[in-house]
């Protein structure tokens, strides 16, 4: 499928998905959201893709938010629909079996930070700036940010970030646990692709089920989560990957996983 605002490059099991609208700092308008949802679907069902890196085009921004120029004319109904459309993208990433790593190469603001938070984990450039400026526009985060940020870093830090609308440095985002690791700008994409390649090289089903157990378990009691984990663990013993992974260990050779 051809996209007007996205680039996709796939190599050795890793797809690099780039939001490519640098003239608007990669802001998310309705068309970009439609394309992102389609791209996630396409990547999820592409057997050549085992992990995805999501980044922004240009040196300045990952994504500078939802498109303010498009939102400026929206009425309440349209605003609601726009939020649902953005949330659909975030949920699509959460529901994908394929892990998605955010490589935050610059500004990740508002809907841009929400896009990064929708990924499975975040690497960032040392020069990145992150924040939720929505309140400075008279609105609030609408693409899952209030939910994902509070779950990730806790209520009080999420409150501070969202209520003040102030940007934080990459260092602070690291200290607060929003970002897993920081890299010099030129190393960010290769490092994210390296992590994705590591994921692409292990048992695809084990990764997919672990992702499912973590995401769903967060909404369960601990006891239910344990039960759910054990069920998925058991299912993996019916897979070729489990047979191959353990045989390779015993035979002291590298496993060749098929994702079956
Ligand atoms: N929407 C639409 N266009 C945007 C944009 C956005 N979120 N962010 C930047 N742009 C556009 C600018 O309008 C500008 O276009 P023109 O040259 O045509 O005027 C171009 O990108 C370059 O931006 P700047 O000239 O502003 O660049 P800068 O370096 O001076 O500033 C910035 C960079 C601090 C990131 C600034 O662009 C900015 O504050 N952007 C808006 C950030 C923001 O408020 N994001 C939250 C949006 S609300 C949201 O996301 C809601 C939600 O939760 C769903």
Question: How is this structure best described in words?
Answer:
This protein has 260 residues and is an alpha/beta fold. It folds into two domains: 6-200, 2-enoyl-CoA Hydratase, Chain A, domain 1 (Alpha-Beta Complex); 204-250, Lyase 2-enoyl-coa Hydratase, Chain  A, domain 2. Helices cover 49% and strands 16% of the residues. The protein has helices at 30-44, 68-71, 76-95, 111-118, 145-153, 155-164, 170-175, 185-200, 204-217, 222-236, 240-250; strands at residues 6-11, 14-19, 51-56, 61-63, 100-104, 107-109, 121-125, 129-131, 168-169, 181-183. A six-stranded mixed β-sheet has the order 1-2-3-5-7-10, sandwiched between helices. The mean pLDDT is 98. The structure holds acetoacetyl-coenzyme A (CAA). Keywords: Lyase.
Write the layout of secondary structure elements.
Layout: E1 6-11, E2 14-19, H1 30-44, E3 51-56, E4 61-63, H2 68-71, H3 76-95, E5 100-104, E6 107-109, H4 111-118, E7 121-125, E8 129-131, H5 145-153, H6 155-164, E9 168-169, H7 170-175, E10 181-183, H8 185-200, H9 204-217, H10 222-236, H11 240-250
Parallel strand pairs: 2-3, 3-5, 4-6, 5-7, 6-8, 7-10
Antiparallel strand pairs: 1-2, 8-9
Regions with pLDDT < 50 over 5+ consecutive residues?
none
For this structure, what is the CATH class of the largest domain?
Answer: Alpha Beta
| Average pLDDT metric | 98
Number of strands: 10
Distinct small-molecule ligands in the complex? acetoacetyl-coenzyme A
**Major β-sheet annotation:** 6 strands, mixed
The CATH topology annotation of the largest domain reads as 2-enoyl-CoA Hydratase, Chain A, domain 1
Number of continuous helical runs: 11
């Amino acid at each position: 499928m051809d996209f007007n605002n996205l680039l996709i490059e796939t190599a050795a099991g890793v797809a690099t998905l780039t939001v490519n609208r640098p003239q608007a700092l990669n802001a998310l308008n309705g068309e970009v959201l439609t394309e992102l949802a389609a791209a996630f679907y396409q990547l999820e069902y592409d057997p050549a893709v085992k992990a995805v890196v999501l980044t922004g085009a240009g040196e300045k921004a990952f994504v500078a938010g939802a498109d303010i120029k498009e939102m400026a004319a929206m009425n309440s109904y349209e605003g609601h629909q726009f939020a649902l459309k953005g949330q659909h993208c975030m949920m699509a990433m959460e529901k994908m079996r394929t892990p998605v790593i955010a490589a935050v190469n610059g500004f990740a603001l508002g809907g841009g930070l929400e896009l990064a938070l929708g990924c499975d984990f975040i690497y960032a450039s040392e020069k990145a700036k992150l924040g939720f400026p929505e309140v400075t526009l008279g609105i609030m985060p609408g693409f899952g940010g209030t939910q994902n940020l509070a779950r990730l870093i806790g209520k009080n830090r999420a409150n501070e970030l969202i209520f003040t609308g102030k940007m934080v440095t990459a260092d602070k985002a690291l200290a607060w646990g929003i970002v897993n690791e920081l890299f010099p700008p030129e190393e960010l994409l290769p490092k994210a692709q390296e992590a994705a390649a590591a994921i692409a090289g292990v048992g695809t089903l084990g990764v997919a089920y672990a992702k499912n157990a973590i995401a769903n378990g967060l909404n369960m009691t601990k006891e239910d989560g344990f039960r759910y984990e054990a069920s998925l663990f058991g299912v993996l013993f019916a897979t070729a990957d489990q047979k191959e992974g353990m045989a390779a260990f015993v035979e002291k050779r590298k496993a060749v996983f098929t994702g079956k």
